[in-house]
Specification:
about 375 residues, alpha/beta, six-stranded parallel beta sheet, 9 helices, five-stranded mixed beta sheet
Length: about 375
């Protein structure tokens, strides 16, 4: 067994041991199901979530101190997840779908509904999920542990979809500088983060396209860990940025199973493999839908999107890469812009979203 995998297994084993110990001593907080916003079609739903103890977070404010934000972040990452629990998803057609949480408390379901449930919001369809059975060291409480998963189903009238990164694309994290990045992540909250100027308006225009209806689905694909899901979802809502599935990454020290491309190593390989896998799944789910891709020059977005164009020819309408003002990173984007231009796919390196919006209007993507 390779060292990273061995360390990952050791970490999971110690977490399980402490969870059992906490439960037996009565220290474990009440359990909750975190159901992550996902996507699907009228014929197939994808549902993902996690069963874990309530981390005990309090509502954040814009005036919270860095120390309070740091303590909240520690609680997010020091999660007490529950493995080996049986969960049931129920559809209006009466069908029940069983799934068991994995070693880190995650569960993934692929459901083929006979009929769509009634939407609770435009484009969004609810699927009730509850805990049916817990591991032997835990007891089911009298009140059911339950929630509703929200599944995005684009309408037939959608003109295109939008796939966007988050870090350094929607808000600043300074991913090219590890110390600045850690400071921004660990000592801020959803209330204190600010989006880049113009990004919310540009994304809303993309969502409404040429018809003026919010038909065009958004998908946020990020290498941020699932532990930050609540913070990111709250941030998007606060700033009226289009709601979409948040497709994040399992925080694991094991190496990715997907072989990275030549020259991509270390954390960049994990980032590349995760984002490419998620984008492949989205485009495969909606074969008749074209897409606009949004990212930044700080990490591997330009190279990832070039690979997406290769794998899915004719599917990408435009690519917008926000310039993080690091010259060596911008220099890597230039040749990709030229290469994709020869293939008829416009990629722009933009300093601001007003430039991106003007270009999208010129392409007829927005009004």
């Amino acid at each position: 067994m390779k060292l990273p995998a061995a360390l990952s297994n050791l970490s999971e084993w110690s977490d399980h041991l402490y969870t059992r110990f906490s439960a037996r001593r009565g220290w474990l907080r009440p359990l909750q199901i975190d159901a992550y916003r996902s996507y699907g079609t009228a014929a197939k739903f994808y549902i993902k979530g996690r069963l874990l103890a309530d981390p005990g977070l309090t509502a954040a404010t814009a005036t919270d101190s860095g120390w309070r934000n740091f303590r909240s972040m520690v609680r997010r990452f020091n999660s007490r997840e529950v493995a080996g629990a049986d969960l049931v998803a129920e559809l209006p057609d009466g069908s029940q779908h069983l799934v068991t949480t994995d070693d880190e408390g995650y569960f993934t379901l692929v459901i083929e509904p006979k009929a769509l449930p009634a939407p609770v919001a435009y484009l969004w369809y609810p699927v009730p999920v509850r805990v049916a059975q817990l591991p032997r060291f835990l007891t089911l409480p009298p009140k059911a542990i339950a929630t509703e998963a929200a599944v995005l189903v684009p309408p037939a009238s959608a003109e295109f979809g939008v796939i966007s990164d988050l870090d350094d694309t929607v808000f600043e994290t300074s991913a090219t500088n590890i110390f600045k990045m850690l400071g921004r992540v660990l000592f801020s909250n959803a209330q204190s983060k600010q989006p880049f100027e113009g990004v919310a308006e540009f994304y809303r225009r993309l969502q409404h396209g040429r018809t003026g209806r919010p038909d065009n689905p958004f998908f946020f694909v990020s290498s941020s860990p699932w532990n930050l899901y609540d913070l990111l979802a709250e941030f998007l809502k606060l700033h009226d940025i289009p709601t979409g599935p948040l497709l994040l990454r399992d925080l694991s020290i094991a190496r990715p199973k997907t072989t990275p491309p030549p020259g991509v190593t270390g954390s960049a390989a994990i980032h590349f493999a995760h984002k490419l896998h998620e984008i492949d799944d989205i485009l495969t789910t909606y074969p008749a839908l074209s897409f606009v891709l949004c990212g930044d020059s700080g990490q591997e977005d330009a190279r990832i999107y070039r690979e997406v164009v290769r794998r899915h020819p004719g599917r990408i309408r435009a690519i917008y890469i926000r310039d993080v003002q690091v010259p060596e990173r911008a220099a890597l984007v230039g040749p990709i812009i030229e290469e994709l231009g020869r293939e008829g796919v416009p990629m722009l390196l933009v300093a601001d979203y007003a430039t991106a919006a003007a270009h999208a209007a010129g392409l007829g993507l927005v009004v």
